[in-house]
Amino acid sequence: MDQLEQARVEINAIDKEMAALFERRMQAVNDVAAYKLAHQLPILDVSREQAVIRKNLEYLQDESLKPYFQQVLEMMMQVSRDFQKHKIGQRCVVYPGVEGAFSHIAAKQLFPEASLHQVYTFEEAFQAVECGEAEFGVVPFENSYTGEVGEVLDHLLYYDLHIQDVYDLKIQQNLLVLPGTDLADIKQVYSHPQAISQSRKFLDCYHWEVIPYTNTATAAKYVSETKDPSKAAIASGETAALYGLEILKEHINTSDQNTTRFIVISKQMRSFGNRFHILFTLRHDAGQLAKVMQLIAEYGFNMESIKSRPLHDQPWQYYFYVELDGNIADPHTADLLRALEKQCEKVKLLGAFNARKG
Ligand SMILES: O=C(O)C(=O)C[C@]1(C(=O)O)C=C[C@@H](O)C=C1
Questions:
Q1: For residue 336, is pLDDT > 90?
Q2: Equal CATH topology for 3-88 and 90-171+255-268
Q3: Buried/exposed 26-50: b ≥16 CB within 10 Å, e otherwise
Q4: How far is the CA of 46 from the centre of ligand 1 (A)?
Q5: Which of 43-52, 192-201, 293-302 is most confident?
Q6: Complex-level ipTM beyond the 0.90 threshold
Q7: Does the reported pTM lie above 0.80?
């Protein structure tokens, strides 16, 4: 046997073992798909995929093979997702805004195999999921620069829905114009108020009229339709391609850490992860909030975030949102929740998620 033949005999033997291992893996994936269908969980789990890749790369002895093995792992999980999609059927996911809006970009990344449908408002996304028209909704929750999306937080209090997942999308704002436009031609700039405030420093260098618009993608669409070179929009690069615009200035947001946290809303609550979030309301007496903070500290939970928002039906009264490090499945968390239920008027556990530390 020459060297080539010998190597091929070895490859054949390895492929045979891999075929058996592939069948075993797909049986496990089949169980995952059945669980995800029964519990209405999304197929893609980004944090799990990252963990699978990280762990498996550590098993390799030969460093130079790591990028190749990573490709194998990514492909294997793509196959796994295709198989699950076939088993579960197509999921319906809604997002607010138009094609090219950041919610659409987040929804595409979170649900690459789903059927995506746009709605006009955040509330329509909540309504579609609550009435069962859609299984999931992807809505913005918080921006690292401009803070929470208050309306979405309010809907979480009033709708009987939970947070199924949390996804951080790096946001890059760009100045979009009709092809051939110069900076000197621009007189008005259109965009969503959050995108405007994220790009404030850039905008302050010019004397343009800045006009708030429903969202970044509709602003880009409007500029494209007017065919007026004195108008520009602030939006994502993807939006430029969609509406035939040109990126005149890239990356105009003040902070390059600009990230928007999107949430996946669903009727089901996610129960695994290293962090969880709750909403609560209090009796309007002195020291109530301090008592809740004390309980959280006494039970040894690290609080990552706290926000307060006005209650719609009780002027000058507020509800609170907190994010705590810990596992919902841990009995200690159940103890804390019981203690909070005694202390608060209403407690709503929104769900768990995997937060990346640092
Ligand atoms: O563990 C899961 O949740 C799976 O669906 C399995 C699997 C995989 O094949 O390893 C596939 C898709 C997910 O994005 C993560 C991992």
A1: yes
A2: no
A3: beebeebbeebeeebbbbbbebebe
A4: 8
A5: 293-302
A6: yes
A7: no
The partner residues of 249 in beta bridges, in order of sequence, read: 175
CATH classification number, 90-171+255-268, choose in 3.40.190.10, 3.40.50.800, 1.20.1250.20, 3.30.110.70: 3.40.190.10
Q: Is 45 in the pocket of ligand 1 (CB under 6 A)?
A: yes
Assign domain 272-358 one CATH number from 3.40.50.300, 1.10.10.10, 3.30.70.260, 3.40.430.10: 3.30.70.260
**Domain 3-88 grouped into CATH 3.40.1350.10:** no
- Residue 36 counted as an annotated binding residue: yes
**Is 80 annotated for ligand binding?**
yes
Q: Both ends of the chain: CA-CA distance in Å? A: 56
Between CA 251 and CA 131 the distance in angstroms is 39
Give the ligand 1 atom nearest the CA of 52.
10
Q: Are strands 275-281 and 318-325 parallel, antiparallel or unpaired?
A: antiparallel
